[in-house]
Amino acid sequence: MDAQGRGRADDVDPADQWVLNPNTGEYELRLGPSAPQSGIPGPRRAAAAPSPSRTGAAGSRTTAPVSPGRDVPPPRRRRGAPPEEPLPGRRGRRPVKQTSKAKKSLLWTGGTMAFVLVAGAATGYFYLKHLEGNVGTTDVGDAAASNFSKDEAFNILIIGTDKRTGEGNEGYGDAGSVGHADTNILLHVAKDRTNATALSIPRDLIVDIPDCQTKQEDGTEKVVAGLEDARFNRSLGESGRDAGCTMRTVEAATGIKPDHFVMADFNAVKTLTTAVDGVEVCVEKAVDDKQSKLVLPAGKSKVQGERALAFVRTRHAFGNKGDLDRIKAQQQFLGSLMRKMTSGDTLTSPTKLLKLAEAATNALTVDKAIGKVGTLKDIALELKKVPTKNISFMTIPVKDNPAETVVKATVIVDDSRAPAIFDAIKNDVSFTEVKKQEKKEKAEVAARLKGTKSAASDVRVRILNGGAAGGSAQQQLAYLQTEEGVTKSENAGNAEATLARTTLEYAPDQADQARRLADIMGLSGSALKPGKSVTNAQGLPAMTLTLGKDFKGAGVKLSSSAAAAPGVDKSTADKAQCAS
Known about the structure:
The chain is an alpha+beta fold. Helices cover about 25% and strands about 20% of the residues. An 8-stranded mixed sheet has the order 6-19-14-7-8-9-20-29, sandwiched between helices. Strands 23, 24, 25, 26, 27 and 28 form a 6-stranded mixed sheet that branches. It has a 3-stranded antiparallel sheet with strand order 1-2-3, with no helix packed on it. Helix 2 (about 110-120) packs across helix 9, helix 5 packs across helix 6 and helix 5 packs antiparallel against helix 9.
């Protein structure tokens, strides 16, 4: 039974159960006159005055007013009622200990932080409702899922806007900006919760922004016309586009449908890093960026507040001074922030946890389906299951926009590499090494495929589509030729029959070639079918590779729990790196 229920059962006003602890200066929840104080944090003595409502392009946000603190008297009993006796067999409540699960919490973005804290650190009903009141919501219609499923894989689009709202942010972002999609990460959490992928989407990626139906403040609906060949960041803010428009743009560009969104402003970085007393970052060379005002010595430094925001905003300190290198630095920053949030000194400090809860929820706007306290709790519990070593950060593979002949300011999707990434995420394939499973699979393949292997350039193979997604044969052909050097390969169209599993048929004298291709594709020994060779377009004998329904995408190894990401830089959340 929650605190509210207990208060009503005893005819005690729930507000009277918050008692000032003179030793800590904090208010704590007392559930009965004979019970010791619970240790659950309550209102502070000098609470701030109610904050005014905040409204922006992302939707409305309201913060519940908090009454000034006061010394609360003990619960009053009714006139004539007998004195209350201690509950039988209970001499007092013991302090609640941190569980081992709490120490494994996944807290690596502002949005995730809020969800986990709601589930773990602030279990009081009133405080949960207070946090829920902090979070702004936007109705994006069918762009988002109508509910959150605990039994399926899910995709959350994390959006960082450049809107100049909040104290001290007047000098950031473009003057008069309505809040563009400046930083974008598509977080995919696997169905079995063993892994997650954080895919960054460059703001300068050229895409087609589809028509988007939005809901106005007065309840009416408006369709905002789409754009062709536009920068991705224009999918939010401009012409009244909301986060649902950004979600639709992600689906149009990648084929991956986001289920929900979490949007944060500049204040998220400042308040979260301050709440944990700073985050460690590392740079290979000293930084003195006049535009972002970031000054750092070479090596490791601790940043928080304005300095942390400068780190994630700077583009001129890293690499070629463009957005792609800034994305890498942001990914390294997020990994470091996550490690700090899951560190022992954070998880064991109620003060830090409450600061994080307030900071995160105040900086967030989400879709309506996940704006409720129960849903936030469910998401938190699912995110806590993912090991940090199996969280991959990567960026959509891109290349320079060929339409720009003088100044290269924008990029386009690299069609030779990106489809493998998109397909892996859509098919819930991990980009991280699950060591136990990988070791087992490698031993199995090695036992079945013992023998010499031909060079990749000597492999001759015709590729048929026998049940894979449309275009798979051509995509796999491009991957084999450009990434693996199997140049003597060709697309032979559709197979006569549909296969559940991919097969490779070869003649006895092609066994060395078959082993090489099996090694490249992660084919198990059972996928190799001794048989006859066929004649390729050059009139030479070749093997036949038939892609079945189990084919997960170009470059994705079939027998492995880890997907190959050819030519794509990736990092994991558990390892510290230096920005260069």
